[in-house]
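new request in #modeling-help
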Amino acid sequence: MVFSNLLFVFLFFTLCMLVYSLMKTNHSRNVVLVCFSVLFYSWTGLKYVLLLVGMVAINWLAGIYIEQQRGRFLAKFAVITAVVTSLLLLGILKYTGFFLTNIQSIFGLSFEVPKIVLPIGISFYTFQLLSYTVDVYRGDVKGERSFFTVFLYASLFHQCIAGPIVRYSDVSNEIYNRTTNLAEISKGVTRFAIGFGKKVLIANTCAKIADLFIPDISAIDSVPALAIWLSVLMYMMQIYFDFSAYSDMAIGMGLMIGFHYKENFNYPYTSKSISEFWRRWHISLGSFFRDYVYIPLGGNKKGMGRTIVNLFVVWFLTGLWHGASWNFVLWGLYFFVFIVLERLFLQKALDNTPKIIPYIYSFVIVYFGWILFKYEDLGTIGSILKGMFCLNGNTFSSFETRTNLLSYLFFIIIVMFAFTPLFKNLYSKIFRNENTNTLVRATGSILEIIFPVVVVLLSALSLIGDSFNPFLYFQF
Amino acid sequence: MQNSKIVNFLKIFLFFVVLGTVGLLSLILTRPTESESEKRKLAEFPKFSFSALLNGNYASGIDKWYSDTMPNRDSLIAFNSKLWSIKGLSVGGEIQGNVAGGDEIPDTFVPILPPINNNENNNSTSTTTKPEETDPPIEDDDKGETINALYVYKDAAYSYYSFVKSTSEKYVGAVETAAMKLDGIANVYDIIIPLSTDIVLKDSVRKNLSTSDQRAAINYMYSGFNKTITVSIFDKLREHRDEYLYFRTDHHWTALAAYYTYTQWADVKGITANELSSYKTKTFDGFLGTLYTKTNNSSALGDNPDEVIAYIPNGTNNMVFTDVKGNQLSWNVITDVTSWVSGSKYNTFIGGDNPFSVIENPTITDGSSCVVVKESFGNAFVPFLVDHYQYAYVIDYRYYKGNFYNFIEENNVSDVIFINNISATSTGARVNELSKLVGY
């Protein structure tokens, strides 16, 4: 199941909250969460639940064993075994096809590459479990005796399939003991609705527009330049609103029951450098690689040369994590290049430019990055880049491009503001100002009350509209 | 400044009450099983199987059923599309769907020899298989005409057409194969029908659209025929472009356009066509066809429904068709569809799309007969042939399962007319079906 699904919002989530609120003790509440999480996860196929249970079991056992053998060699052995086994499982399930096709092309071999269906969320929960085991080994958290608790941590449907990658230390106390209050539940409700709306109303529409401008990638050579620019821009927006929407919904659902997940996105498209972009984009992934790869490799403490090597490793892995294909690796290394340049001289240079330049620089670099992210084939990427400057023999614009742009004009303009904090700030300024009069404050309160419901209902309407799928056959 | 307690409480309360109410209503209200406007059956609740449960198909089936069959979905969808109309401006029209670039139309047809040997007995019904047969199996299960992107301008929608060179050539090869196999047995005619975009859309608007030139595409295909007698109707329809030749809310042509096509065919055949005034007419209003649906029930179209005018053959209005299940039904050539739903008025012609139909004209007793091999555009054309033959047979090549050549021989057919809209000639699934029928 995914969050942007009518069944999820109106039945699954509602029922979960209803049953949850009827429970009196913390333990029974946890049982409810585990039951619903298993149901949620089994929605993608019951067999994947077994895999999840297995992964949890490996890391849970390792945690216990590390506690018993603390300080001894066997503890190290346990952590290495758990990490290697988990990564191996992730590797086999996610990267076998990629690995074998590369072997084929390098050695010119031909054999059947098995098609393995990637279990949903495996990249996320594997990383959560890795962080758990390593943290236990480091002594940052205590190895958990109860399988149930570790399973709840890894499988909780809030974040199991699309992040944020929650650390055990962030939630371990709250698993045992958490409280809620009206203000936080209310915040959670709004956050959940914002996420749902971002996904359904904004991201899905951006995706539609991106396809409208480049309807057929195999015919990219005839697509007008303006259409390519707009398509990539809409894809850039789609990715952000889609991904951050899941985090919003996770954070919102957490707040409703007393879990405090860390923020995962912080207006990344308003960054002033690429380094900053990665501190604002998918924060939980960035910090995972920082804490479990970059710093253990020595970080920036071992001289410039070593720092660059460490950064290379991190960005190679970051790219590969996003998908089993070279274009993702290329995408990761693309950022590596700019981050290194920034460390060497670019950051200083940017600091001396007019205020707007660093914003534009980051936006443009990230913008072009998404082309690498979206298209797997290097030839296609080349054609897109050429087409953007009318080098494919294509025109700059066309009647269809202008017509499509006009028919989504207002939407596009709103989206171009929606990735900034503008709307949020405007709201605070107008309605959250101590000095405003009662009428404005009352309006603010009414907006506050009806906003989540309106957004959720509009999104639901949109999802029903998506099921509109005319079958153009004359009789039925 | 924090929210007051009461605001927080009301917000949470309202939120969960609405979620719960919608959830509950979605379970207790009656769910639709088919959609009138989309002309399809909606998703059904999945059948349980253990393997489907294991691999997730069972659950995704439930998801699909739940969202596809929401109570009141048709009105909710209409409301949603109304809300979204504020997304931008629609001056100068609007484009629905994705515009696919067509192939370039070459000047000269490179002849592709049909894969049969001319010395071979033409009556042979065995289909020679070509060794280089590499066509993918027909995956497209959808028997409807594929509608490409649409351009909505004022109160009408116009289809884009993308010329696909290989498919168009295969179409020519298929019809030509039939013509060669039937050489000396029957005349084979081919009619390719242009779409409204190149006939009735204002030239100043049409020139903006990136859609393939239909006249050039038809000329290209026609230049590839040798044994087949082609009937050019493009210019004839252009002459009458100010008349009601195409529906504005449906992708089909009107019976009037089919009439002009018939007169052109009669010229080619060398017979005298009936005057339009000789026919009794039937008129059905309130027609909102496929283009209306495809534009998400656009109100520009919905507010201006089409009118279907049908001409009843002078000889008879009776026919018999065989449906896909093999049942024979007596029907009318022109059926009264006044009480039928707004989307199905085109079905007035020869009972809609059926694998096989026969119209026997009792006023002619010379044993003459013709076969029309068609998709749904042919339905409006068939009635005009009735007055010229004792038997007019209709084969819908998408559904017909019998042996084509045997049928023609057994029934002494003298004229075989292939009639297709231009979009079908560039649609792989259609041309594959046609090829299968004629053994190409």
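bot summary: The longest strand of chain B covers residues 280-287.
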